[in-house]
């Protein structure tokens, strides 16, 4: 069997490049339907991940009418959708309850808006930038663990509220490994019967752990239903960590052939989304074709 590849056509930089001309924003140049249509015509792309932050960032960009048009494209081209739930300014793990509950409302509203597209999965960051900042504190490891565990408790409350208010099947919520100790996040995933979106670049740059990509996959494949497939690197310069992720395959440290062989062996059939530009996605597909053509 071949694997299923997808693209995020609303990546931040390509979106900004489309909107801003000569230093001035022109939102009339931004049309989600056109961008999705262009993306699904790229060879081997059969899944589109919709970035729900766009609903808030670009006025009028994502409306019920737009959703209907995207559903019609699905009928025309035969692709499927996933949805990346809002993450900008969202912190589901915060101790500030009004902020936390506002994030829950944003997530639930997004689920309800995009549900007519029947997304395979909804990718969720169960912790955000504040939790990442606390996880990086230069404190004793034990103290950081206590702090992260406390924040995970708030995150668990948020997840419970999201599930109750949206009435969605928990397995359609795919929690992404982000800059936060994943062993703490995994406990929430198990408690609420959620899925995992495995971002390979986040792991390669050591945001969510120190194990290898194959080790992470083997440990968590019972819950992995979606991949964010991108390359990444980690190095230190004079003791300062240098992180790089969301790179085209073959430009970082991902063992492309070995990893995809493992997916093929397991008959993995979940969406594998390139969080890359269209050109970087083509470059990545070419790399896959070179090293493991049976995965195309």
What does this structure look like?
It is a single chain. The protein has 296 residues and is α/β, with parallel strands linked by helices. The protein has one domain (4-295): Divalent-metal-dependent TIM barrel enzymes (TIM Barrel, Alpha-Beta Barrel), CATH 3.20.20.150. 45% of the residues lie in helices and 19% in strands. It has helices spanning 12-19, 32-40, 54-57, 64-77, 97-114, 129-135, 141-166, 182-191, 200-204, 213-220, 256-265, 278-291; strands spanning 4-7, 20-21, 24-25, 45-51, 80-84, 122-124, 173-176, 195-199, 224-228, 231-237, 240-247, 271-274. The chain has an 8-stranded parallel barrel. Strand 5, helix 5 (97-114) and strand 6 form a beta-alpha-beta unit. Helix 2 (32-40) packs parallel to helix 4. The radius of gyration is 19 Å and the shape is globular. The mean pLDDT is 94.
Describe the largest sheet. 8 strands, parallel, barrel
**Fold-level CATH name:** TIM Barrel
Strand content is 15-25%
Helix-strand makeup class: alpha/beta
What does this entry show, briefly?
This protein has 296 residues and is of the alpha/beta class. 45% of the residues lie in helices and 19% in strands. It has twelve helices and twelve strands.
């Amino acid at each position: 069997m071949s694997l299923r590849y997808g693209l995020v056509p609303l990546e931040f930089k390509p979106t900004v490049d489309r909107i801003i001309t000569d230093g001035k924003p022109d939102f009339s140049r931004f049309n989600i339907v056109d961008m999705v249509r262009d993306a699904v015509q790229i060879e081997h792309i059969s899944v589109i991940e919709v970035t729900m932050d766009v609903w808030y960032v670009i006025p009028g960009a994502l409306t019920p009418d737009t959703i209907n048009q995207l559903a019609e494209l699905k009928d025309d081209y035969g692709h499927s959708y996933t949805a990346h739930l809002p993450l900008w300014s969202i912190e589901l793990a915060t101790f500030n309850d009004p902020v936390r509950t506002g994030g829950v409302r944003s997530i639930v509203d997004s689920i309800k808006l995009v549900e007519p597209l029947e997304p395979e999965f909804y990718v969720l960051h169960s912790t955000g930038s504040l939790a990442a900042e606390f996880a990086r504190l230069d404190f004793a490891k034990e103290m950081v663990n206590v702090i992260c565990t406390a924040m995970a408790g708030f995150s668990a409350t948020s997840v419970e509220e999201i599930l109750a208010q949206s009435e969605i099947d928990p397995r359609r919520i795919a929690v992404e490994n982000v800059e936060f100790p994943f062993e703490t996040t995994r406990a929430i995933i198990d408690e609420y019967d959620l899925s995992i979106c495995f971002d390979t670049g986040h792991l390669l740059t050591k945001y969510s752990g120190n194990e290898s990509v194959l080790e992470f996959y083997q440990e968590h494949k019972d819950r992995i239903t979606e991949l964010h497939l991108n390359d990444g690197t980690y190095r230190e310069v004079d003791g300062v960590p240098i992180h790089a992720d969301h790179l085209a395959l073959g430009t970082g440290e991902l063992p492309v052939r070995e990893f995809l062989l493992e997916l093929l062996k397991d008959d993995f059939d979940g969406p594998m989304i390139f969080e890359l530009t269209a050109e970087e996605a083509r470059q990545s597909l070419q790399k896959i074709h070179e090293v493991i053509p049976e995965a195309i």
